[in-house]
Specification:
single chain, 469 residues, alpha/beta, 8-stranded mixed β-sheet, 15% strand, binds nicotinamide-adenine-dinucleotide
Length: 469
């Protein structure tokens, strides 16, 4: 559709991105990426920053949360619907460059609240007017990936609490920019990693907190989701922009869904930290095969050269030596899975389907598959208090509702966010670091310390309700 943006807008960040891509592709051809670890250089370069940390940033409680949404396509419209379902919110502005999509969202607000919401459309950078509005407290960003960082930076520069879809950043440099901006402007910058609010994932966090699994040694996560259907319509929605990334980038292009909940359970950025990564990809065949078998030779997908390997497997080691296997595959005939496995000295939890093996239940040799009693005992408070609403509102089985409810609860009670800007940065840069490793024959790449040492004295996350005010 003509009023859709070009695939790579000419924002400063994307000019930078293109430079990086050019350098990366050229470098890969001559093996130049075996040079000193990108992450190390960045970490050293940023170490001297005078900014104060925003780890566990607590801001004054807000009575009512006035929300502006940028990007109201498939994901943004859902976040909009759920935001209106949570008490204490008001939608004060919407932005989307695609007119019909925006109209649909305006109608949704009108039907739900009876109000006509102000809108912004017509140009790629019109969102800047939304983030400048004095009646917007919090900005939700649900646009294609290349827009996340420029939009989040502008939102934070205007003092807005900023909530950005996954992945928050596409490379190390941009992740640093998010961190530095949140620190400079003293605002929340949370990536909307909704899987951290799944009922199973939050129950797992409670199992870890109660020491049911013992000392955690290893985790396994994934984003295995057959997305070949996005090739069906390449004029609108994800089909318009997502396949383009699979022709430009390698490695794990969507790392955070399987990883986020495990990182919280393992105390990443809170007592431990990602240290290094190695990554390998299989050949890139799935999308090309789907395009060839499903569409005529002159169909746009048949003109693309896919380079993102079908199955990417990365191994991450933490500062304390623990390991995490992370996989990404979006073009194979496999059932959906985020694996969601966490292994401790006393037991192992695994997802898809949920099960538990415990030393003191038969030596851990057999899975316990009926977890009803475990959920009764260890359900996180967000689910035990919001179960009915979450079930009624839905959104990936209710976790999207729980996430938005929790964000609003934190803002209204002056609590820190459960996911910090340091988490957004460390989880998202796996895209960049895994790509660097894949291009350099699985060479090890170091993670920057986005917290600049603060991880060493930060307590693990506790997802609890505020004391009644
Ligand atoms: N957390 C989740 O479960 C989940 C699920 C789906 C998508 N996502 C993420 O949400 C984001 C959006 O995905 P989607 O599926 O909604 O894609 P989409 O293409 O359906 O929607 C994106 C919208 O952004 C608009 N847009 C593009 N450039 C813009 C600009 N400069 N200014 C304003 N609007 C602009 C488009 O017109 C479109 O309506 C992506 O980052 C994706 O990774 C997350």
């Amino acid at each position: 559709m003509s009023d859709h943006p070009p695939h790579e807008p000419s924002s400063p960040v994307n000019v930078e991105r293109r430079r990086f891509l050019g350098a990366t592709l050229a470098g890969a051809a001559v093996g130049a990426l075996d040079a000193p670890a990108h992450g190390e250089e960045r970490a050293t370069r940023r170490a001297a920053s005078a900014n104060r940390s925003v780890m566990d940033l607590a801001l004054p409680p807000m009575e009512r949360i006035r929300i502006g949404v940028i990007g109201v396509g498939m994901r943004g419209a859902e976040l909009l619907r759920l935001s209106m379902a949570v008490p204490g919110t008001e939608i004060t502005a919407l932005c989307d460059t695609h007119g019909p999509t925006l109209e649909h969202a305006v109608e949704l607000v009108r039907k739900t609240t009876g109000k006509t919401v102000p809108t912004y459309t017509g140009r790629d950078d019109i969102y800047k007017a939304l983030v400048a509005r004095p009646d917007v407290d919090a900005v939700i960003i649900a646009t294609p990936w290349q827009w996340h960082v420029p939009m989040a930076l502008d939102s934070m520069a205007n003092g807005k609490q900023t909530f950005v879809e996954v992945p928050a950043a596409l490379n190390v440099e941009d992740a640093w920019q998010l961190v530095e901006s949140a620190e400079k402007h003293r605002v929340h910058c949370m990536m909307l990693e909704n899987c951290c609010y799944g009922r199973s994932e939050l129950m797992l966090l409670e199992l870890v907190r109660a020491d049911v699994l013992g000392e955690i040694i290893h985790g396994e996560g994934a984003y295995i989701h057959d997305l070949r259907w996005i090739l069906k319509d390449m004029n609108v929605g994800e089909g318009h922009w997502r396949p383009q990334w699979y022709t430009k980038r390698m490695g794990n292009a969507y790392p955070t869904h399987g990883l986020g909940p495990l990182a919280q359970c393992m105390g990443i950025n809170r007592g431990d930290q990602f240290d290094s990564i190695v990554s390998m990809s299989s050949p890139a065949r799935g999308f090309a095969a789907a395009a060839k078998s499903g569409f005529p030779a002159d169909y746009p997908a048949n003109k693309l050269k896919f380079i993102l390997g079908d199955m990417n497997s990365s191994l991450i080691q933490t500062k304390s030596g623990r390991t995490l296997l992370l996989q990404h595959d979006v073009c194979s005939p496999r059932p959906y899975s985020r694996i969601n496995l966490l292994q401790g000295l006393k037991g192992t939890f695994a997802g898809y389907p949920d099960r538990l093996a415990l030393d003191d239940h038969g030596g851990g040799e057999e899975w316990i598959t009926d977890l009803t009693g475990w959920f009764r005992k260890y359900d996180n408070v967000l689910w035990s208090t919001q179960l009915e609403q979450a079930t009624a509102q839905g959104g990936h089985g209710g976790m999207d509702f729980v996430m938005i409810w929790r964000i609003v609860h934190c803002l209204r009670n002056g609590l820190p966010m459960d996911q910090s800007v340091y988490d957004a940065a460390a989880w998202s840069v796996i895209f960049d670091l895994s790509e660097q490793s894949v291009r350099a024959r699985a060479a090890r790449r170091d993670f920057p310390d986005f917290t600049r040492g603060v991880w060493q004295h930060t307590a693990p996350v506790k997802i609890e309700l505020a004391a009644a005010r």
